[in-house]
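Anyone? Bumping this.
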Amino acid sequence: MATTNRQWVLKHRPEGEISAGDLDFIETPLRPLAEGEVLIRMVYLSLDPTNRIWMSDMDQYLPPVQIGEVMRGGGIGVIEESRSANLKVGDIVNAGLGGWQDYAISHESMVNPVPRMPGVPLTAYMSVLGMTGLTAYFGMTDIGAPKPGETVVVSAAAGAVGSIAGQVARLQGARVIGIAGGAAKCAWLKDELGFDGVIDYKAENVGEALGRLCPNGIDVNFENVGGPIMNAVIARMNNFSRMPLCGLISGYNLSGLTPGPEDFGRVLMKRILIKGFIIIDYLHRAAEGFTALGGWVAEGKLKWKDHPVDGLENAAEAVKRLFSGDHDGKLMIRVSPEP
Amino acid sequence: MATTNRQWVLKHRPEGEISAGDLDFIETPLRPLAEGEVLIRMVYLSLDPTNRIWMSDMDQYLPPVQIGEVMRGGGIGVIEESRSANLKVGDIVNAGLGGWQDYAISHESMVNPVPRMPGVPLTAYMSVLGMTGLTAYFGMTDIGAPKPGETVVVSAAAGAVGSIAGQVARLQGARVIGIAGGAAKCAWLKDELGFDGVIDYKAENVGEALGRLCPNGIDVNFENVGGPIMNAVIARMNNFSRMPLCGLISGYNLSGLTPGPEDFGRVLMKRILIKGFIIIDYLHRAAEGFTALGGWVAEGKLKWKDHPVDGLENAAEAVKRLFSGDHDGKLMIRVSPEP
């Protein structure tokens, strides 16, 4: 049995980009389990833009990670020791917010077995069948609610959320335009995922491209980034259009506030709906989301990419890739081998 | 029978505030009626902040008024001549967008009799029982949807829309804080209309006052103004709060765009809903609104003030009062005497 845990703890809050000194990599002894608890060896640790928010002390949807605390993170692991009647050694489980560490000790009430589907790799439960897939599903279907033939724009479209959000919109019968950075990502969206149009924001004028690709305007803006790209989309949003506000990644590394639409008058004139949402608000409907996403996965109607980076020791460096775009699919740490 | 009409026509689009030269006051001959038409002598002409939008060429919810066209405006009048089987001379009618003129010629299909209630003055059909009342009712009940005990903030609270919106929220059981300019308006809101708290933005720091008056945060922001007051309210909006976006009057006289929230991250983190709306979207539900508002008026549960200014010739000067706040209740022109 393991007796030592490696953990990333928050040393100080980042200013701007996350830097090496913001997190400390420490070793701590593992305490014995109490009744009802399990010891989870982390297998995959999710890296997400929201990690940067948790590291800050801004007013947010969960308490900020405190200085000295283990960095928060979602993940999947395998039970190595159990004092629960319901969970046994070897079970592969969703470890909830197990944290950036080799081992998590959790009460059985916080741990759920991963509902494996045949032929689906475990990493998929970190992406298309995990939190990012559910985020895409609920944001698109519940807030965006595209009707057949409507035009949907997704920013950060090659990201773990955006790529699923766009495909979900296509499955609702919408025309989907994706905005992503780089020719390879754009080719993947168009050729593999079937997006109706793509815009490489690193190579094209986004506004001009939107004008060309959205001749009937935009009915849904699945917003992940904020800033100038958001403004270019809003400038073409139609009457009664909807904007699920999923993320504002362009602002997460900035010290000041992230401003809203530069043309708020258009939100009024076009009667646009803007709704911020966080996946934790939809967890009571998770079964609905899994059923829909799982069905599409089984039918081969959803595609996704996972990008595991080996080694917990690389987490603090790897998380930066979310902001540079230097990753290819859902970014995660492979903390230990799959069982 | 009248043979001459006086009309305000748009001469050029205002830059900044409306100025004397933007509209021309002209005389034109009245043409004969066609079959199905009526000649309406305008009695009350509505002056509204949206007039400024119609005068601009910004992308808006109706076509901009064209240069040389009669200025658009809603109103009530009396039929002086009829070639309609359904409308007779002497009928008091809602003249739709009859325009800034002494007489409007309208097809019977565009004209509805005013459904008078006993003891209610005709001016009320320009305000609490007119478009501004319906705007307040639907924005508050359909988008804001306050629950009993929730905290509602209304900006431009002494205005024709805001004063009704706040009272409607109180009738839903909410705590209502109004933001208005000047001690007299604030006293009216608190002492006469029963607002739970008031903030004089000309004399107080709005953010500090909101902090004091909204110890549990803000659940509904009925937004009429935009700018720093909007930002002060948003900074205190709660999880899952709602923001009916009714107007942005602080920006109507500015040449640039009116920016959205300075802290859009909060819209995401607090899962705020923002929804632009225009009363024309709710006209199919007008009967519902009139029934509710009329019932409250009959029961003495709604109070309002009307501010008629005599003389069509004063319209171009009087409309500016909407932006200076120099009016006391729903601003309108008394074009001709009530029948």
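Late reply, but here is one note on the structure posted above: The mean pLDDT of chain A is 95.
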